[in-house]
Amino acid sequence: MTVSCKDGLCVDVGCGPGQSTELFCPHFRKVVGTDISETQIGIARAACTAKNVSFEVSNAESLPFDDGTVALVSTVNALHWFRWDAFFAEVRRVLVDGGVFCPSLFRLRAVAEPGLEDCLEEFRYQEFKGYLTAQHDFWTYGYENTDVPFSDVRKKDFVVNEMTTLSAVLACVRTWSFVIRMEEKEPERARQVLERLETRIRSKLGKPGEDDPEVQVAYRASYILCRK
User: What pTM, to 2 d.p., does this model score?
Assistant: First the structure.
């Protein structure tokens, strides 16, 4: 069965500040991002420029859409935080027949520079061991062990290398949930840990005269495509 996208509704669940939501704009008549956080929805609304996108405060297990009205349900970097039985039931309820469900992960996995290949993994497991939860295993293993109760299931996992800046790497690291929790509970320790990470990367890059040196990084992407 072919599902029309141009005339359809796309829902991005757990959209956060909305960066992923707007990517669907050219392909659907209407796109709605949902998130349980009023703060994140406020940020998304303020930043949005697309006319066919809107944002709603909603938890993933109770979506504000009628039965059989959604062509695509997407969730980016969020599935591991949901209650799966309830969420999957909601996905099935709101999707049209043949509609698509696509959970995906896109995460910074490594600094792809000599001597720094393992620094982010060491950083996570040595400095933040007490803040890691079972949900963080998805950042290591992706969706290879994830079963979804839908049909025509396809999975893919791949790595993308690209150039960015040191400041962008550090900004990304500061969005990680375990870093945020340490900053809330132990702000001074978190500051010192992040400072050590920056110092380590700078020392290996060997670019002492550059305030914000370029650095090669590796992103790992994982997704599942399946149908109702």
Answer: 0.81
